[in-house]
Write a structure and sequence with these properties.
mainly alpha, three-stranded antiparallel beta sheet, globular
């Protein structure tokens, strides 16, 4: 019965937070909710590691609360709330898989709540109390999604999660871009929900129940034909793939992540899109027990396409949050590749390799939640201090925001999969799984394994390129705008929340076994194999499966080697070098000589801060301040820009992009006898144009059909009503007889 305590804790703690929210004290309610999520995450992690049996003191409390709420328990980890509506049972399952995802949701909720305490006021959002209500509701709905064990109740919470996240994307409703992003998101997510509804309806037709337990028995009994499994596979892929942002169903993802508040973006990217992966694991490993290797290969192929398309688009973005959104798409591709490999191994009876691939998948889900959550929170810190997300207007932040820049660097190194950080470890495990796929005795798998490995290696290099740009252009060099020049360190709690994630990124990179221990519980539940016993872990080293000895990667060893190498280089230069050290201002591509303008650094800083946004005053030579600002702009805008950095990538892969470039000559403006030229660059999504074209044609057809249906004849409308009534009566009659 202790499993009920988790659900009751969620209900009670959320209900207790309502008075604080209604009191219109958002700061107090955010602190309170952060404490709730911290306690809940600790409880869920402890339950995952040691089970509910370790909470004997909660038994009386659990029993009384279960009676109060009308809960029934069939097992120690399964509870149900019965309703008067047929087939609608609010069933909740607390197995290891749901506990793992619940822990990630609660922990990231804790971090985001702590961050929002200062962030809401730094960004000067209106309706802060409304934000807190939507924000907490969003986190709670995600928890209920992963704990639901009934199809109908799952759809209810899935819809609540989607609607609340829609309102959070729309939170800055005054902005036209926020409205467009929110509308696109709600349309795409409901298309996915439609396929999920068809999927659940098909499962009901096969089992006569919406219970996940009944669906699991269907898979165990082998009651699904090849055609039935194919239908389930396709509907699962389309329905949940839409939420995950897989290729080519991803067009909502960059826009929604860009427009949502950064603490919400961290949740959406860090965990919400992975609720789709959670349900894919449920269907492909619990509800479908026996299937051919083709299903896994399809997932592997789609994952590779998602991976390469996401990282290519991430590399050319100038908006830092849009870059991170495409990076999330890339990581979803990596997760799908791991899932596809696990399915291939499972279909061939290679359960040890399946367990290894599943462990790599779950570890990357955890790691991505940490480093991508950190990066989105970091982008929010940048935007709150500089008032821009455009990397072409940033620069020099490493001196203005030293603590935030160091923390953000850890997230960048993790996302770029560089040792000794956590992103490297999980991606290396997935890469090993891919190499071990060559042992599968299927020719097409053997042929495509090196191709997929090459794609993953290429994506790793491109990801490093994208994040070198993200950090280098944003934090190094000199400020390219007044906002960047006047930036300061973000408030304390924003730094603390980011720092916790940065510390975990480093900790799980060095001592990865800390993260693998709870994941082993989940893998054992899915595959019946304790993979933790089959891999050697000592001092942070991860050794591949002994039978498939591909090499040893030790994050601790790599860190030690790196420190020793850097120390040796430094000592060599110090002892044998004969160079004079000169401390000077940051080099800005040869234009740092301010004697030409007869101004100093302090004058530039002072004048820029006093000038507002008016940094372009050509021809106004009487204003000394304007001359100084022009000097400042000339000096710093000569640096390498984000657009210039990604130009080679755009040229090489130009067919993959929807890039619009235009060079406009302003003949009426001349400088040094030549007309002023403006370069206009815009990077769009290739598939967004396709969907827009399709949608416009579809809506045109619909409008014509609507005009035909709404002919203005009363008799026709009566016929519609009668026909609808007959169809509904037939449906209800069939539904009750089927039950």
């Amino acid at each position: 019965m202790n499993g009920a305590v988790i659900l009751i804790a969620i209900l009670f703690l959320f209900l207790l937070s309502i008075p604080f929210i209604i009191s219109f004290n958002p700061k107090l309610s955010l602190i309170f909710s952060s404490v709730i999520y911290l306690l809940l995450s600790v409880f869920l992690l402890f339950s995952l590691l040691y089970g509910f049996a370790k909470f004997p003191l909660l038994l009386p409390f659990s029993a009384q609360l279960s009676k109060l709420f009308g809960l029934r328990s069939s097992t120690s980890d399964h509870i149900t709330y019965l309703t008067t509506i047929p087939y609608l049972k609010f069933s909740y399952l607390f197995d290891n898989l749901s506990l793992f995802f619940g822990f990630l949701i609660a922990f990231l909720g804790f971090i985001s709540s702590l961050y929002s305490f200062n962030y809401l006021y730094e960004e000067h959002y209106k309706n802060k109390s409304l934000f807190v209500i939507l924000f907490n509701g969003f986190i709670i709905s995600m928890l209920f999604v992963v704990f639901s064990a009934n199809g109908l109740s799952f759809l209810i919470f899935w819809e609540i999660m989607s609607i609340l996240s829609f309102f959070l994307v729309l939170f800055e409703y005054e902005k036209e871009e926020s409205k467009k992003a929110a509308n696109l998101y709600i349309i795409m997510t409901h298309i996915g929900t439609f396929f999920i509804f068809l999927l659940f309806l098909y499962m009901f037709m096969k089992t006569g129940s919406f219970s996940f337990e009944a669906w699991k028995h269907l898979g165990i009994s082998g009651g699904l034909s090849v055609a039935g499994m194919t239908i389930i596979f396709i509907l699962t892929l389309l329905g949940f793939g839409m939420k995950a942002g897989i290729f080519p169903l991803h067009v909502w993802l960059p826009k929604a992540h860009l427009e949502a508040p950064s603490s919400v973006s961290a949740l959406m990217s860090g965990i919400m899109i992975k609720t789709a992966i959670y349900m894919m694991i449920r269907f492909y490993f619990e509800f479908m027990k026996s299937y051919g290797w083709g299903f896994g290969f399809t997932i592997l192929l789609i994952g590779a396409l998602t991976l390469i398309y996401g990282v290519l688009n991430a590399g050319i973005q100038d908006n830092i949050k849009r870059l991170l959104a495409y990076s999330s798409m890339e990581n979803i591709g990596i997760m799908l590749m791991a899932l596809g490999l696990a399915m291939i191994f499972y279909s061939q009876g290679m359960y040890l390799l399946c367990a290894f691939a599943m462990m790599a998948l779950l570890f990357h889900i955890m790691n991505h939640a940490l480093f991508k959550g950190l990066l989105f929170l970091g982008s929010g810190a940048i935007a709150s201090q500089t008032h821009t997300k455009d990397m072409n207007k940033l620069g020099g932040l490493v001196k203005k925001m030293p603590a935030a820049s160091f923390i953000f660097l850890i997230g960048v190194l993790s996302a770029a999969t560089l040792p000794p950080f956590n992103g490297f470890v999980s991606e290396w495990m997935i890469y090993q799984s891919l190499l071990m796929a060559s042992s599968v005795n299927i020719e097409i798998i053997k042929v495509f394994t090196p191709i997929f490995a090459s794609v993953m290696a290429l994506a790793g290099g491109l990801a490093a390129l994208a994040f070198v740009k993200a950090y280098g252009i944003s934090f190094l060099g000199r400020a390219r705008s007044q906002g960047a020049n006047s930036a300061k360190e973000p408030p304390f709690l924003m730094l603390v929340s980011m720092g916790i994630l940065a510390f975990l990124c480093f900790l799980l990179g060095i001592f990865s076994f800390i993260g693998l221990m709870p994941i082993n519980k989940v893998v054992k539940e899915i595959t019946n194999i304790s993979i933790y016993k089959n891999i050697a872990i000592s001092y942070g080293s991860i050794v591949t499966l002994p039978k498939y000895s591909l090499g040893i990667i030790s994050p601790v060893g790599l860190l030690a080697a790196g420190i020793i190498f850097m120390a040796a280089v430094y000592l060599f230069i110090k002892i044998f070098g004969n160079m004079k050290i000169r401390i000077f201002e940051t080099f800005a591509c040869g234009l740092e000589n301010k004697d030409v303008y007869n101004i100093s650094d302090s004058q530039i800083s002072k004048n820029v801060c006093n000038a507002g946004n008016s940094n372009n005053h050509e021809g106004n030579n009487d204003n000394t301040n304007n001359d100084n600002i022009n000097a400042y702009t000339k000096i710093n805008n000569a640096q390498y820009s984000s657009t210039g950095f990604s130009q080679p990538l755009r040229r090489i892969f130009e067919k993959m992009y929807n890039v619009k470039e235009n060079l406009i000559n302003e003949e009426y403006k001349r400088k040094y006898f030549f007309p002023v030229k403006n370069y206009i660059f815009k990077a769009g999504d290739l598939f967004e144009c396709f969907y827009n074209s399709f949608a416009s044609k579809f809506l045109e057809k619909i409008s014509k059909l609507r005009a035909y249906i709404q002919g203005g004849v009363v008799q026709t409308y009566i016929a519609y009503i009668v026909g609808t009534l007959i169809i509904l009566l037939i449906w209800v009659s069939w539904f009750y007889h089927a039950g």
